[in-house]
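Hey, quick one: can you model this chain's 3D structure?
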Amino acid sequence: MIKFLPVLLCAAVAVHAAEIPLKWTSGNLKPAVNGRVYRFRSTENDASALRLSGKLIVPSKGVRVELEFKDDAQQSNRYPRLFVIGDFSLQLEATPASADKVAKVMLTDPKNPRRYIQIPVPAVHHPENWHHVVCTLEPRAKLMTLQFDRGEVKRHPLVFDLPTKPVPLLLGASRVNKSNRGYNGFIRNVSVTYPYDPDPVKGVKTVFDLEPPKVNGVPVRHFTVAAVPGRHLAFPGVAKLPGGDLAVVFREGAEHVCPYGRICMTISKDGGRNWSAPFAICDTETDERDPSIHVLPDGRIFVSLMAWNSWTRAKSTAEKFPQASEYVKQAGLPRSGYSQYMFSSDGGKTWTGRKIGDSNIFCPHGPACKGGYFYQPATGRDNGKRQIHMYRVSADATQVEKIGLVGETENGHGSIVPIYVEPHTAVLPDGTLVTAIRVDCDGHMRISFSKDDGRTWTKPEKTPLRGFPHHLLVLKDGRLLATYGYRYHPMGVRACISTDGGKTWDIEREMVIQNNGLNGDLGYPVSIELDDGEVLTVYYHITGKHPQCYIEGAIYRP
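Sure thing. Here's the predicted structure for all 558 residues.
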């Protein structure tokens, strides 16, 4: 049993919280205690924790937690907890074999565990350096905040009610006893202020305060494309069919990652006001996801998609779906999966499909079409590096050729170092291929150009566009439109125009397409230009009205 420690519950003068000596109790793996420094150990199945006894915390009254931590280079799980107060926690996101980390404060909706808000920051491991963290729940200001290493205070609006149930404070794991969310490292100088209710922060608008977005002074017209209760809809594609109907394809699953993903389609005959009930066009024993849809010059409808055993990638999700995971082993299905092209000559009633090359030949928004070929950018790995390669695929999808290297970066954790992923390619009016690349560490789009049909590429350059992943659309007047998910406050979807083929971007007139997202599970927008010059952008989203991910469309004139 840990002895009484010096005062850990502190009070800000304006708050008038009582100062009380607090007693900590430990879990199965007792932490080492040296003064006010705690040494935590964890395994995949067990963890050490300290529990604040004698005082329960009601999150709806507000709380402030300040601490310092120094993590081990390797963790026993991907999401180690530094502290937990019910649905409010500070955690690391870590690849167990990597020293790269992300620190994030997170709050889950107590009424719906699928709804959450979070504030992430890079937290690179340094063997000798302590990180300083301050986290708050501020009920009157309706804010959750995170300050990391005494830098900028990052804020996120509280978009659901704070929990009112009294809960304990746990340090070093998600439970006092057996837990697989334990932390390996040191924590010191813990200070807890409760209740905590400072004056509201002026000038910070919540999602409820924000005005609906406008483009060029005209309100963006939003409509629901597909929303299925209890299902996670995401990663859409959109096309105008030869007869004039609009078609949207998307992944439907039980969760963001699960064995039940399938590709569905919905049709609108009136420009997007009304949509058919979704119907499946590809559904196998694995997880189909990230579809794109295009109309080819000969009138055929073309859909690209990725099929892979996504849930087996992480131990936690593999164990969550044990029967499907065991079936994958018995059937000998590869975890890496495969890319597939599908074609329909009868308006989407029937489809023929073909696997394309190896599992790496894929990107979420599909290939570009030029000169009777598909130009498919795709992510790969080789010699400790992550690459974006360009492939050329024949019109009948029977021949695949790797033709060029778009760019490469060193391996690492994508939230810490610039890793190139999820590219998209468009063809400019002069025939130049332009590829946008997602980079998570700073969120800024990279861009590269090829004037020899994808054989050689310029070095990817950082652009001012912040958000991901990206879709590029060449408008009829020659301008290049980029649309991208925006996972910063206020979360939603944004767009930007380039008048010189992607060399420069008019970021001063960046367009906000949607701004009411509740968390970062959103985006993957894709756009088409309508006959009258307006643009239809389709994306997935989660809002107060739709607490489960659904497909939304927006029409505006860029």
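One thing worth noting: Residues 322-331 form the longest helix (10 residues).
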